[in-house]
Amino acid sequence: MPLETLPVVDFSRLNAGAEEASQFRDELRDAMHEVGFLYLAGHGIPQELTDAMLDVSRRFFELPEEQKLAIENVHSPQFRGYTRVGGELTEGAVDWREQIDIGVDRHVVAPGPGVADYWRLEGPNLWPEALPEMREIVAEWMERLSTISLALLRALAVSLGVPEDIFDEAFAARAFPVLKVVRYPGSSNELPKQGVGSHRDGGVLTLLLVEPGKGGLQVEYQGTWIEAPQVPGTFVVNIGEMLELATNGYLKATLHRVVSPPRGTDRVSLPFFYNPALDARMPQLAVSPEFQSRARGLSVDPTNSPILETYGDNALRYRLRAHPNVVAVHHADLMEG
Question: What is the set of domains in the chain, with CATH numbers?
Answer without folding.
Answer: 8-335 (2.60.120.330)
